[in-house]
Amino acid sequence: QLDPPRGPCSPPAGSFMMVNSSQHFGGQRAQLLLLPLSENDTHCIQFSYFLYSRDGHSPGDLQVYIRVNGGPKGSAVWNISGSQGRQWHQVELAVSTFWPSEYQVIFEATVSEERQGYVALDDIVLLNYPCYKVPHFSRLGDVEVNAGQNASFQCVATGKVSESEPFLLEVRTRRLFMSPSPNHKRLMATFQVEAQRGEQDLYRCVTLSPRGAAISNFGELIVRVPPTPIAPPQLLRAGPTYLIIQLNTNSIVGDGPVIRREIQYRASQSMWTETHGVGSLTYKVWHLEPDTEYHISVLLTRPGDGGTGAPGPPLISRTKCAVPGGIAPESLTFTPLDDMIFLKWEEPVEPNGLITQYEISYQSIESSDPGINVPGPRRTVSKLRNETYHMFSGLHPGTTYLVSVRARTAKGFGQTALTEITTNISAPVFDYEDVPSPLSESESTITVLLRPALARGAPVSAYQVVVVEEDGSRQVRRREVGSVDCFPTPSSHSSQSRGAPHYYTAELAPSSLPEATPFTVGDNHTYNGYWNSPLDPTKNYLIYFQATSNFRGETRINCIRIARKGTARCSRTSAWRTPSWTPTAPEVRRRGAGGGAVPPPPPPGVLLAAAPLHRCVFMFPDEQRSSVNESSSLLGGSPHRHCRRKSSPYHTGQLHPAVRVADLLQHINQMKTAEGYGFKQEYEVIAPVAPPAAAGENKYSSFGCLSDDRHRVKLHSLLADPCSDYVNANYIDVTPPPFCISSPGPKQEMIYDFWRMVWQENCFSIVMITKLVEVGRMKCCKYWPDDTELYGDIKITLLKTETLAEYTVRTFAMERRGYPAKHEVCQFHFTSWPEHGVPYHATGLLAFLRRVKASTPPDAGPVVVHCSMGAGRTGCYIVLDVMLDMAECEGVVDIYNCVKTLCSRRINMIQTEEQYVFIHDAILEACLCGETAVPVNEFALTFKEMLKVDTQSNTSQLREEFQTLNSVTPHLDVEECSISLMPRNREKNRSMDVLPPDRSLAFLVTTDGESSNYINAALADSFLRPAAFVVTPHPLPGTTTDFWRLVYDYGCTSVVMLNQLNQSNSPCLQYWPEPGLQQFGPMTVELLSRTADDDVIIRLFRVQNITRLQEGQLVVRHFQFLRWSPYRDVPDSKKAFLSLLAQVHNWQRELLLDDLPRGGGRSGTFCACTMILEMIRHHSVADVFFAAKTLRNAKPNMVETMEQYRFCYDLAQEYLECLEVR
């Protein structure tokens, strides 16, 4: 009870608890503790307070605490401070506790530093009805969650509530704030709390207002630890493709109960894991690889989200080896020929380990030729594991073979796949070593000797004697050359046209010709319905003997000229007398089922009287097949790198001596000074002048690329056509024997002569350096078939085609009527050289040249090289081939004298000064770079040697190779980036330091208002496809529309993003919708799905051009790689990067790469690794240098750093190790 004097500074009158701040030090506290209370609901405690100071100073603070069950007082549930006026204020406390908990209210006054005024309490009352001024909380329940998950506490209040007053969730000294939301006359707030492992704490809800406070009971947060087994699973049994295990889950670390069991397994050397649910304590893991080590762990799950624990300790076990499964019979495909079969198959569906070899067995079991003994001996051949094809040769025509194929692993052979293949029948063969002279001759008859033919695959069904009238018309003979059959069989005996140039005069049964028998042509008898009419003495005749075989609908005919009968008048006219001549070999004409006929050649030295003189080339008996006299070659360097060169076939002048390889760079730089005056001067000296030559088959005779007759290829003449020895082709004797042959691209009428030349010269390799059509003009006729085709008496069959980015390799089987042997011919078609000008870089051409040399057998005939004209590009290729061999064998190059000699063999072989300069640059690049391809079986050892640091130079071969790459990388001039530097395009470039060259730009097709068709993006080749990559920096806010236009225009089904959003100094913004659909200019982009793991986020988009809806939609897969840290040159994990490459490879059709602002280092590394894996899969070699050089030709900043260059080697080694394990 206080009754102080009344005044403006006096405390209020009456009885109350008071603290006079002026009588205490600042910070001193006074507490009033109520007795502990308990209630199974909510108590409302009402009290009044007085805080006043005369001058407005703060007397101190007043706090209220609620202590539960004698624990710590916690944080204040209500507080007030500062002077509140000279009056009493009433406050309510709604305390919600539930039995058996008890609580205690603590009032605490704290003196301020100002130490003036009063803090007082009065009228503390426990009401027996709910609070009116403040709400009260419903009971707060306990929450149980798994570690790492979010716990939800829901605070629900009723009564006097306001949405503007926040709810608090209190734990120890922390408070979480949230504005409540109304819900059926109640306010509710839900708090999310992250539960950490081992955390156990108490939470309560509090709401504060000037009118008072509401306090809930404590709810407990219970954090459970997901279970993990202590012991690894136990192996019960192992097989080649399975492992049976026992889980061992009785002892665990963490909390139960266990509601689900799973096993997780992976191959030890693989990054891929699989998870299977398990319903019992034993489990059989199926579909495993044989002889492979696996890691198997157990996963346990308890109730609730995030209840799956970490994998337990792994069981490490290996499956057993097993024999492979059988090769699927439906995978056996074959192409039968006369005496050859081309067979292909596929690897077994279940290889059960590493296939080490394939065994192919074959045996003749049936034949239509009675001369073949069946069944024949069984023969077996073995093939390497990567060879899934075989060419059987030396077979019998018309014979059925039982062929078996089986695969082998280290454990033995698998099941055998069987198939029956029947070879085609072949035309009969005549046994004529020499064509004999007629036995006798009269004015109307001629007697010849008929010899039986040897059947090949089917018995001879009939013989025919055919008479051909020579009427002096060149047109008749030309028609025979291009006819379909030797001589068509008439449908009836009376259907032979008397105006036809030939007629059947007799048909003989095989039984009537058991041995050589005389036959008189013109004896006026009938043979099997054909009248052997007398011959007209005033006409010239050619007599042919023909044999036919028929079997199962197939017909094969072979015919041979056995005699010629002249007119009686001509024999008495000495001016046109035909001299006697006995050929040295039979002149044979054969045909297949659809074959063409070829007349036999005339004798040397004979000029047919009926031929126009201006169409003939005179030949003399003493001429040889070729007029090439020089036997020496410029240098060694055969396809197998044997240096056999003794001396150059041309004179190396003192004014132009050979240049040492070591001095080549200095020599070229000197020649390029004064705007290339040195090259200009040399080229003017060697520019050729065209000599006279035959023009009938010259494709570009008006351009001065005629064949020099002294060195031309001379074909064996066809019978009755002395002009048929000409083909526009030259021997180029500046190469080691066998010489090269240069030729223009064949015209339609040249195709047969071209293949005759290939057959005659035993050529294995044809080098083609032109496209069929260039700039809308036909440059070369398609002289090869897509399957099988006959050109005269030569049949060409396409066996396989291999297409790479810059060239294509086609393999043909070549056979000719009358010849039992068959040839294999490879065409190497380089597709990256334009009609005029030269390639921008020589990288692809040098790789192409090496491929030709490595593939050509050492015993093959000349390499045929042709472009469209047979000059220019052809000459460049030959000079490169010769000079690279010379550089390797002698350490010098002699380009000037080689080109000069080459132009003397064939005119215009080097057409322009630009080509002459290109030859120098290409040879320099080859000498600087060397051979960088490494076979996969030597890669590990080679890479280890490359990493060794030389103690004297303090560098390694790998670093020197990277420095060489930098030295041969093209440096861009401003003119080469003119489009990027245009004022309207500058704002579309993130950085002006690295711009794409004009030659590599990817121009936009889709229009977007006034926007230009420029985007900072470059096209780059892969190993297998041209323009396989589109490389671009991360889009800017103003180029996002252009980015999606680029994706749509180039059909990019894969987008690889190698950086994270906003990870670099230059902002990298999100350019895709997530979720939903978004429009970017004319493009709409819709997110279809999203999956993620630790390494990559994969999004699937649907892209459509709303201005071209008829073109349909494009489905794009977006790969965002997460394992490439900022400011690191290489990815964090090789395995993760390999996984990314595999996923992109399985999906990719056209690839777009989104990189950091410079758009080259990371993208270049990705592209280079993709190319290296393509090389390994298709050619079993790895060439990191070639991959990086090819990419830098398109964009010089690709594979920027030494670390990225080495990473390409590391990744190749990792990939090869994975292959060995598999």
TrEMBL record:
Domain Tyrosine specific protein phosphatases: from-to ranges: 846-917, 1159-1206
UniProt biased composition (Polar residues): 574-583
The EC number(s) this enzyme carries: 3.1.3.48
CDD domains cross-referenced by the UniProt entry: FN3 (cd00063), MAM (cd06263)
Any Gene Ontology CC annotation: membrane
Topology class, membrane: Single-pass type I membrane protein
EC top class, as a word: hydrolase
Protein name, UniProt field: protein-tyrosine-phosphatase
